[in-house]
């Protein structure tokens, strides 16, 4: 009997059978079929456990640990299942812990909101918005915890706004990581991935949304044509280089890409303003007034938080083949222009892949974001406001057929490496790689820098000295590789 089979037998003996899903059942098919990336759904775990409480998670860890600690049985931890890296949140032949039933969203009198690890942002937005509050949550209503928010220029990364984590450690203990309880763990969890335990609840800060006749946000999408992109790069860099004088209420991304459905290269500005307004504020006008644009697709308007998140969730393909990869560079026109040229040339080579939809997206981390991030206790990412604004460069690709996997990955990896080489040549390269958008050949933990990596390794040794989350949970990016 394999270690995994023994672990399943032990789980069956202790935990409610309806929460342990086995291949062949409808519930198993529903859970395993619901990843964003088809490549992740193709993995077939031997069993899926769906905890309904932190106590269930603790029981799972205690039962599975004897089999998993040496790596002979393994398990995966799954939140919303939106990170496209295959194997990061599913385990072929192993066990998958699907946190999708931990969906509590509870707003407290002190205006913090407790969010279960399986909740989606749309549910969180709904609860806080009803109380006139906002939260630094994901842009997409479907997303899991992590990354950038509409409010990030002002409030920092989403993880910077986690006041405390409830986490199940390798011992099976349910504990809290906050500035006063396990502060090392609290900082490590802000960027350190699934290396320290299973987070069962996030307690997040909220803030009042501006009240008034107009809705508290404004924004949407502006579609335009590729000849307009160089000017948008210039506008982006000019806005970022205002440094402390940049408007902290803006959130913007600019993209160039291709869609086989329409057979054309197109560009997209996604812009938001986090104060009430009925028209584009000055800081956003360079990104909204671009001409010519596709007027019928222009979605700029006043929004409430739930509408904004629903807008970002709409149109996201799910259950297709997906690849994300990214690098970060300093805000520099020549570097970003070179990146766009390299990218467009690479896309030309894969345009005949069925169902191709792909984009190169520049997501800025303005100085205000990096400063706020540090002021809120810092994280383990190794980003420093003193180095100026950062632009995260994301290569996002969706396609239909497995037969195109290798050539698409090769083309995009080649483009990424060329973009990085250009940045090195122009002295604008940064080591940082955003973990949630990283590909399997990238090393986001190493990109945080030697000191941060050593810090994370130390936290792992303190709270998981046997290395359960290193060997027993092989998916995602590990600390000792
Ligand atoms: C449609 C879409 C929209 C997005 N929108 C945004 C956005 O607005 N801003 C942004 O910056 N990013 C965004 N992203 C990227 C996003 O940050 C990540 O996809 C998301 O945060 C991952 O969370 P998840 O719950 O889906 O993780 P999963 O895919 O379930 O897991 C990802 C990794 O985290 C680990 N993990 C998950 N939950 C836990 C837990 N509770 N405890 C320990 N480890 C855990 C898993 O083991 C795995 O390694 C988006 C992605 C998509 C596909």
TrEMBL record:
Residues 41-209 form the FAD-binding PCMH-type domain. Keywords: FAD, Flavoprotein, Oxidoreductase. Pfam families: FAD_binding_4 (PF01565). The keyword Flavoprotein applies. GO terms for molecular function: FAD binding; oxidoreductase activity. PROSITE patterns: FAD_PCMH (PS51387). The keyword Hydrolase does not apply. InterPro entries: FAD-bd_PCMH (IPR016166), FAD-bd_PCMH-like_sf (IPR036318), FAD-bd_PCMH_sub2 (IPR016169), FAD-linked_Oxidoreductase (IPR050416), Oxid_FAD_bind_N (IPR006094). PANTHER family: BINDING OXIDOREDUCTASE, PUTATIVE (AFU_ORTHOLOGUE AFUA_1G17690)-RELATED, FAD-BINDING PCMH-TYPE DOMAIN-CONTAINING PROTEIN-RELATED. Belongs to the oxygen-dependent FAD-linked oxidoreductase family. This is FAD-binding PCMH-type domain-containing protein.
């Amino acid at each position: 009997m394999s270690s995994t089979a023994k672990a399943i037998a032990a789980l069956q003996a202790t935990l409610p059978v309806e929460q342990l899903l086995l291949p062949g059942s409808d519930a198993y098919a529903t859970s395993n079929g619901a990843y964003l990336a088809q490549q992740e759904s193709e993995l077939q775990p031997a069993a899926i456990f769906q905890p309904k409480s932190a106590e269930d998670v603790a029981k799972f860890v205690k039962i599975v640990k004897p089999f998993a600690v040496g790596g002979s049985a393994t398990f995966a931890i799954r939140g919303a299942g939106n990170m496209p890296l295959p194997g990061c949140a599913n385990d072929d032949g192993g066990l998958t812990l699907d946190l999708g039933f931990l969906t509590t969203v509870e707003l407290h009198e002190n205006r913090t909101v407790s969010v279960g690890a399986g909740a989606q942002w749309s549910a969180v937005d709904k609860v806080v918005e009803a109380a006139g509050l906002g939260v630094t949550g994901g842009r997409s209503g479907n997303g899991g915890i992590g990354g950038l928010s509409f409010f990030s220029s002002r409030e920092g990364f989403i993880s910077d706004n986690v006041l405390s984590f409830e986490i199940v450690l390798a011992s099976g203990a349910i504990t809290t990581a906050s500035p006063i309880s396990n502060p090392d763990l609290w900082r490590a969890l802000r960027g350190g991935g699934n290396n320290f335990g299973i987070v069962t609840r996030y307690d997040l800060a909220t803030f009042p949304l501006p009240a008034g006749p107009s809705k508290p946000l404004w924004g949407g999408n502006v579609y335009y044509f590729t000849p307009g992109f160089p000017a948008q790069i210039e506008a982006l860099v000019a806005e970022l280089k205002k440094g402390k004088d940049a408007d902290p209420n803006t959130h913007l991304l600019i993209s160039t890409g291709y869609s086989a459905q329409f057979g054309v290269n197109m560009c997209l500005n996604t812009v938001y303003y986090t104060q009430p307004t009925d028209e584009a504020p000055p800081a956003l006008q360079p990104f909204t007034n671009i001409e010519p644009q596709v007027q019928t697709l222009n979605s700029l308007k006043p929004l409430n938080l739930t509408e904004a998140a629903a807008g970002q969730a709409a149109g996201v393909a799910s259950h297709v083949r997906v690849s994300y990869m990214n690098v970060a560079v300093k805000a520099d026109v020549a570097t970003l222009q070179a990146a766009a040229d390299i990218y467009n040339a690479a896309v030309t080579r894969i345009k005949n892949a069925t169902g191709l939809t792909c984009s190169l997206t520049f997501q800025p981390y303005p100085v205000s974001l990096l400063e706020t991030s540090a002021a809120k206790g810092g994280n383990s990412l190794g980003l420093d406001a003193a180095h100026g604004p950062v632009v995260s460069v994301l290569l996002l690709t969706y396609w239909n057929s497995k037969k195109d996997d290798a050539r698409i990955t090769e083309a995009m990896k080649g483009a990424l490496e060329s973009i990085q080489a250009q940045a090195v040549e122009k002295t604008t390269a940064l080591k940082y790689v955003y973990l949630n958008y990283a590909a399997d050949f990238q090393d986001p933990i190493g990109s945080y820098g030697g000191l941060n990596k050593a810090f994370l390794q130390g936290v792992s040794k303190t709270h998981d000295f046997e290395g359960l989350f290193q060997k027993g949970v092989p998916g995602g990016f590990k600390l000792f590789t």
